Amino acid sequence: MMKRIRLVSCHRMPERSFFYRGKQFPVCSRCTGIHVGYLVLPFFVFNTIYISPLWTLLLIIPAYLDGFIQAYTKWESNNPLRFITGIIAGVGSMSLVSLIGDGIGEMILNYIK
Q1: pTM: predicted TM-score of the whole model, two decimal places
Q2: What is d(CA 50, CA 64) in angstroms, rounded to the nearest whole number?
Q3: Residue 34 has pLDDT above 80, yes or no
Q4: Distance, CA of 46 to CA of 87 (rounded, Å)
Q5: pLDDT for 83-93, tens place per residue?
Q6: How buried is 65 (Cβ within 10 angstroms: 0-12 exposed, 13-18 middle, 19+ buried)?
């Protein structure tokens, strides 16, 4: 029997995942939201959207809070909340990637001068 290679660090628990036509999504609802949030990267790259570094970090916090509270207490989140916090974290992550890329680009340009 051939084993599958797992390249995603998602738990993929069925009760925390979305289903479409009876088939489970390849990642949980939070990771699905994060991946959907990643779709905004071109808007950051082409300077259509700018989010300050403080707001960028604040956008990432709700997904971590939801995950940690759920992991260490008896409170159980739901898939819509996981998905929404995932989207917010995905947008924040892409803003952070963009800010870091801009910073590295500035450092390179200053070094060349």
Answers
A1: 0.84
A2: 22
A3: yes
A4: 20
A5: 999 999 999 99
A6: exposed
